[in-house]
Amino acid sequence: MSILKGKVAVVTGASRGIGQATAELLAKHGAAVVINYATSAEEAKTVVESIKAQGGKALAIQADIARLEDIRRLFQETVRHFERLDILVANAGYSCFKPMAEITEEDFDRTYALNAKGTYFCLQEALRYMVDGGRIVCLSTIGTILNVPGGSCYFGSKAAVEQFCRVLAKEVASRNITVNV
After folding, report:
1. Shortest CA distance to 38 belongs to which of 11, 13, 71, 69?
2. Could you tell me how far CA 134 lies from the centroid of its own chain?
3. Is the overall model pTM greater than 0.85, yes or no?
4. Which of 36, 37, 114, 143 has its CA 20 to 30 A from that of 122?
């Protein structure tokens, strides 16, 4: 029996890497999966085709998670196509490793626009559609604990994600939605 049969998952940044592997595993266990991507249309198409070839359901949706209007459209299109949302895996991210003295405003803005702001508003928008009993997983990094030199900007953005999840878990507990990071 497929443990996720009938469930719908959105995986941000799912055209490659950890996001791709996560989407493929969710599909293997029966979930219909939205493969979100910002710029890698061909890679996203390949992931969708791979999942479908295995008998799964998948749909690629382009949305830049750093843009609020794209986030809204991502979840609207997901629900329009699959009629529900059960799982969000907030995986999309950007890493910038430089000594703090070398981080530019552009580096900072790009990192926080995707990792912190983008994740925050993905969480918020997902909650508008998520069924009670849903699941949210956000990706972070052990760097928030290790404090490796050169990681201040990236690790700070991921520490924000960790805090969002701690608070959100308490806010949605009454809906039986679990939030993990």
Report:
1. 13
2. 14
3. yes
4. 143
The 10s digit of each residue's pLDDT in 75-84 is 999 999 999 9
The whole-angstrom separation of Cα 154 and Cα 144 is 9
* Parallel/antiparallel/unpaired status of strands 85-90 and 8-11: parallel
d(CA 181, CA 174): 19
- On whether the CB atoms of residues 39 and 67 are closer than 8 A, the answer is no
pLDDT at 1: 58
Helix then strand count (H, E) for the chain reads 7, 6
What length is written for the chain?
A: 181
Phi and psi at residue 61, in whole multiples of 5°? -130, 120
Listed in sequence order, the residues at least 6 apart from 116 whose beta carbon sits closer than 8 Å to its beta carbon are 157, 160, 161
**CA 47, CA 44: separation in Å to the nearest integer?**
5
Residue 143: partners with Cβ closer than 8 Å, 6 or more residues away:
151, 154, 155, 158
Query: One-letter amino acid identity for 169?
Result: A
